[in-house]
Design brief:
139 residues, binds adenosine-3',5'-cyclic-monophosphate, ATP-binding, metal ion binding, alpha+beta, four-stranded antiparallel beta sheet, 4 strands
Length: 139
């Protein structure tokens, strides 16, 4: 079924001017970018977005990195968009990502891994509403 998911282009990728190349991969996979904005998160905002990871050893590093430069927040729409986006992103660790995926081609490390994508439809709805109002979703 047609579904929506949340995607974020991370600071390592915006810094290297890779927004267009990443968007091309998303679109080639059949995902439509129905909302998009560039935002520089404060550490507090990054910490709130990743609150689910607050007890993990990498949380401090994650918050610092995600607030170190601009991100591009996006809503993607398409058939099975959550799974399709995770497929085109590739594994969290770029060393394990399949050929042709965003992380294989662009990610620098497990932390600086170029993109985030929702892990399920419920998370997608929460993450979309963290960044966007209904008016900003233009399908
Ligand atoms: P993301 O999908 O955005 O969700 C949580 C992020 O934490 C993940 O991608 C990684 O970038 C990051 N992460 C996971 N494991 C580690 C790690 N061992 N060290 C640093 N960052 C990590």
């Amino acid at each position: 079924a047609t579904q929506r998911t949340f995607s974020m282009i991370k600071p390592d990728a915006t810094k290297r001017n890779l927004t267009g190349k990443i968007n091309a991969k998303l679109e080639e996979a059949g995902l439509r970018i129905i909302a998009q904005k560039r935002v520089h998160l404060t550490p507090a905002q990054a910490g709130q977005f990743y609150a689910v990871h607050k007890d993990r050893p990498f949380y401090g590093e994650l918050v610092e990195f995600m607030s170190s430069g601009p991100i591009v927040a996006q809503v993607l729409e398409g058939e099975d968009a959550v799974a399709k986006n995770r497929e085109v992103m590739g594994a969290t660790n770029p060393a394990e990502a399949a050929d042709g995926t965003i992380r294989k081609d662009f990610a620098l490390s497990i932390g600086e891994n170029s993109v985030h994508g929702s892990d399920g439809p419920d998370t997608a709805a929460e993450e979309i509403s963290f960044f966007f109002s209904g008016l900003e979703l233009v399908g």
